[in-house]
Design a protein that fits this description.
There is one protein chain. By secondary structure, the chain is an alpha/beta fold. It has 2 domains: 156 residues, 3-Layer(aba) Sandwich (Rossmann fold); 268 residues, tm_1862 like domain (pyruvate-formate lyase- activating enzyme). 42% of the residues lie in helices and 17% in strands. The protein has a 7-stranded mixed β-sheet, with helices on both faces. The protein has a 6-stranded parallel β-sheet with strand order 10-13-14-15-16-17, with helices on one face. It has a two-stranded antiparallel sheet with strand order 2-9. The longest helix has 23 residues. The radius of gyration is 22 Å and the shape is globular. The termini are far apart.
């Protein structure tokens, strides 16, 4: 059966920690694009190669079987090589148009189009209506110059159309086309419970120098109404039978009053849901956490980044050490699961500050800790400054959150990697920590210990 559009989340050959930590997250970006296409009577299918362990031969076979008119591929920086190889696989067996979207494509569109003949078009920023507009324009032999948010080649020139305005009314978007993916594939830290992911907002006003969110979605935050979010949860429960939700907003707790309204509605309706979310320690307190727990929240993902205040200030995080301690302490008191996200090798990092961070995280007693290495991603202040200083030596294949990309004034790449290994091992191989977690879920926890040992 032929399809109009095939959307591909490329193979993930790098993120072994996703396997060990059992992190398989639905690709919300292309799910939204698929929903808008379906709403406009476009026949669309999705291939999530990362979740389904599908390789490039699998892509070729799917393309030959479905004969798509247009193939859309999403691209993050760690998986840009895989995204480009996916496009090559498409072109090997088909004359389909290829369009690349996602954060990396948004910021590096000129480089990609200059160097990769397998990519016909690039969509910048939010792609729902640009992909629809592109598809309709190609089908009718229309003028590509009218498609906002599109970048493409015309002979030997790269044409960059004007940006498409951001989607202002998020409530107007159709719910992600989750029915196009297998129901039981996705998990977050839990072998036994399938999960659906959602977002309630786009945009971020924060100044963090290592994050590209505000460059991608704007500094002004656009929020969905609590009621629309509630209705989507009910739709997920009724259509998929899933009641575990992961909120993937940059910061779910950015507007505490909105969270209060949402939680109150969940409680009033007596909704049987379990959920986790992202949180900033300066945008949450005990009262809000108690309300969130009553509404079914069991997990907080918190960007700790560092245990050194000078480094937090240098990266413009906007949080304080005492706030971090208070939130983790409160979560522990309330019996909420916590995930601490940490970056080793941030600007100003020394061996002393890294060791201070390792001790700090252990003292916080989070349920899990993710120790990445500081990575200068396109679209961030960190990337721009690193490139301007001539310190950006790595190619994209090294971008995997585990391989150091840039030295600090005090640490070599080898020293940063060594400190990351030390962080994983000192955190996960503590005897008391191992005993506590083996009692709760021995099989899953053993996989995490294996991850710590293999760094």
């Amino acid at each position: 059966m032929t399809v109009d559009v095939l959307l591909i989340n490329p193979p993930d050959t790098k993120s072994k920690y996703k396997k060990y930590f059992n992190i398989r997250i639905p690709p919300l970006g292309i799910l939204y694009i698929a929903a808008v296409l379906e709403e406009n009577r476009v026949n669309v299918e999705i291939m999530d190669c990362a979740a389904g362990d599908i390789d490039y031969t699998g892509i070729e076979e799917r393309v030959e079987k479905t004969d798509p008119f247009l193939v859309g591929i999403t691209s993050t920086t760690p998986l840009i090589s895989e995204a480009l190889r996916s496009a090559e696989a498409v072109k090997k067996v088909s004359d389909a148009y290829t369009v690349l979207g996602g954060p990396h494509a948004t910021f590096m569109h000129n480089e990609i189009l200059r160097e990769n003949a397998s990519i016909d078009f690039i969509v910048k920023g939010e792609g729902e209506y640009t992909v629809l507009d592109l598809y309709q324009t190609l089908r009718t032999d229309g003028d590509l110059g009218t498609v906002e948010g599109l970048v493409y080649r015309r002979e030997d020139r790269i044409i960059e159309n004007k940006d498409r305005p951001l989607v202002e009314d998020l409530d107007s978007l159709p719910y992600p086309a989750r029915h196009l993916l297998p129901r039981d594939t996705y998990r977050i830290f839990d072998d036994n419970m399938p999960v659906a992911t959602m977002i309630c907002s786009r945009g971020c006003p924060m100044q963090c120098s290592f994050c590209a969110s505000s460059a991608l979605h704007g500094k002004r935050v656009r929020r969905r109404s609590p009621g629309d979010v509630i209705e989507e949860i009910q739709h997920i429960q009724e259509s998929l039978g899933i009641s575990a939700i992961g909120f993937m907003d940059d910061t779910f707790t950015l507007f505490p009053r909105w969270v209060e309204a949402f939680c109150s509605e969940v409680i009033d309706r007596e909704m049987a849901i379990e959920w986790g979310c992202t949180a900033r320690v300066d945008r949450i307190d005990r009262d809000l956490m108690e309300l969130m727990k009553e509404a079914g929240c069991h997990t907080l993902f918190i960007g700790v980044e560092s245990g050194d205040q000078n480094i937090l200030d240098r990266i413009k995080k906007g949080t304080r050490i005492d706030q971090i301690k208070n939130v983790f302490g409160t979560a522990h008191d309330l019996g909420m699961r916590t995930i601490a996200s940490v970056a080793i090798g941030l600007p100003g990092e020394t061996k002393e500050t890294a060791n201070k961070t390792i001790k700090f995280v252990k003292d916080l007693k989070p349920s899990f800790a993710l120790f990445s290495v500081a990575t200068p991603y396109p679209g961030t202040e960190f990337y721009n400054k690193t490139r301007e200083a001539g310190k950006l030596q790595a190619d994209w294949s090294q971008y995997d959150l585990l391989s150091p990309i840039v030295e600090t004034m005090s640490l070599t790449l080898e020293e940063i990697k060594s400190l990351q290994k030390k962080a994983f091992r000192e955190f996960y191989l503590r005897p008391l920590y191992i005993l506590q977690n083996l009692k709760q879920d021995g099989f899953s926890f053993l996989k995490i210990v294996k991850a710590a040992l293999s760094t």
